[in-house]
């Protein structure tokens, strides 16, 4: 307990120091630093904390950065003796924060040591990670240390135990701040594992800040990694601010990877089907004609499922619309053959689906390829309602000769 007399004495000391440092500052910034360091060494723990607070509110962190490193070394030298002491912990937190704000590179190792000493203190460790990144810019060891910590926390999470969530979030932010391409793998692991939505969002944001070719890196994952990671990489790419060319190339790679996948795991099958559908939609939205042959293959698989009474009509209609944006004779031929089949079945009195038929007619009109002429014309001779016949006439007028 601090008595009234002791508190008064401490405040008097601080007031004197402020006056002294103010006078010294008018002469030389190094004199201010020296004054603070000298009095820090001489003072009690409680006064050290008050002194550091006063310094942080009076002088720029960059002007007295060595003072904060002095405080960090004091914390490290006494952490064993004063384990659990609230004032020492508060001193450590303030020193870490201000050292980070100053970007004082010489404090980097001491900050990491404080991070290690205060295991379990989420607030302090999060501040230490941020400060370590800010003081360790350009040092590969900083990237390795923070990445290794994040990887260890992900392993803890995967084992079913509870990781240090605040520290994980801070580690992700720190790696984004460092922007080193070596962090792609661990940040993507954090994105995939996603212990909570905050970490998932932070990992996505951090990945977009890394140096290197993000589009090429994502395409590599989509082509080579396990199915769930392929799907995650494609998902990540859609919100990563990629150019349309990179998004198109990624969607093409994703569609090809999903089409080529041959596993039998129900979970992975579902992921690959969703990837096919999602990638095909992006290809259509971007009119990414390079992927026309893959889009045709995707359409045929969906059509086959539909004929067997399986699959989603919405997905099939979307695939038809994608083909309508491909601008290729091959796409027009694929759709025209299916229109021929529907016409033949209608002639035989078999049922047909209006949404699918209208989608095919509209897509053929958009393509404007004369290969569809006979099949669109024949619609007028069959027992279709006026809505279908009108759509066919409109499509015929769009054909190019």
Description of the molecule:
- This protein is mainly α.
- Among the domains are: 1-77 and 86-136; 289-401.
- The protein is 76% helix and 0% strand.
- It has 21 helices and no strands.
- Helix 4 (65-78) packs parallel to helix 6, helix 14 (244-260) runs antiparallel to helix 15 (266-286) and helix 19 packs parallel to helix 21 (386-398).
- The longest helix is centred in the first third of the chain and has 24 residues, at 4-27.
- The radius of gyration is 33 Å and the shape is elongated.
- The termini are far apart.
Please write out the topology.
Layout: H1 4-27, H2 29-42, H3 45-58, H4 65-78, H5 86-102, H6 108-117, H7 122-135, H8 140-158, H9 165-178, H10 184-193, H11 197-209, H12 214-224, H13 227-238, H14 244-260, H15 266-286, H16 292-307, H17 313-324, H18 329-347, H19 354-367, H20 373-378, H21 386-398
> What characteristic shape results from the CA principal axes?
elongated
Query: How many strands, which pairing sense, and closed or not: the largest β-sheet?
Result: none
Helical coverage, percent range: over 70%
User: What is the string of helix and strand elements?
Assistant: HHHHHHHHHHHHHHHHHHHHH
Beta-strand portion reads under 5%
Class per helix and strand makeup: mainly alpha
Q: Roughly how many Å apart are the termini?
A: 96 Å
Low-confidence stretches: 1-5, 11-27
**Total strands:** 0
The total of helices stands at: 21
What does the radius of gyration come to? 33 Å
> How confident is the prediction overall: mean pLDDT?
92
